[in-house]
Amino acid sequence: MSFLEYAPAPESRAILNLRDEYGLFIDGDFRPGTGETFATISPADEKHIATIASASEADVDAAVAAARRAYDKTWSKMSGRDRGKYLFRIARLVQERARELAVAESLDNGKPIKESRDVDVPLVAAWFFYYAGWADKLDYAGLGADPKALGVAGQVIPWNFPLLMLAWKIAPALAAGNTVVLKPAETTPLTALLFAEILQQADLPPGVVNIVTGAGATGAALVRHPDIDKVAFTGSTAVGREIAKAVAGTDKKVTLELGGKAANIIFEDAPIEQAIDGIVTGIFFNQGQVCCAGSRLVVQESIHDEVVDRLKARLSTLRLGDPLDKNTDIGAINSLEQLNRVRELSRIGDEEGAERWTADCVIPDKGFWFAPTIFTNVQSSHRIARDEIFGPVLSVLTFRTPDEAIAKANNTPYGLSAGVWSEKGSRILAVADRLRAGVVWANTFNRFDPSSPFGGYKESGYGREGGRHGLAAYLKGAPAGGAARVEAGRAKKEVSA
Amino acid sequence: MSKRLTVPKTYKLYIGGAFPRSESGRTYEVATPKGDFLANAALASRKDARDAVVAARGAVKGWSGATAYNRGQVLYRVAEILEGRRAQFVDEIVQQTGVSAAVAGAEVDESIDRWVWYAGWCDKFGQVAGNGNPVAGPYFNISVPEPTGVVGVIAPQDTALVGLVSAIAPALVTGNSVVVVASQRYPLSAISLAEVIATSDVPGGVVNVLTGSPAEIAPWLASHPDVHALDLVGAGELDWIDLQIAAAETLTRVLPPESGTDAAAPSLARITAFTETKTVWHPKSLV
Question: What is the ipTM score, two decimals?
Answer without folding.
Answer: 0.94
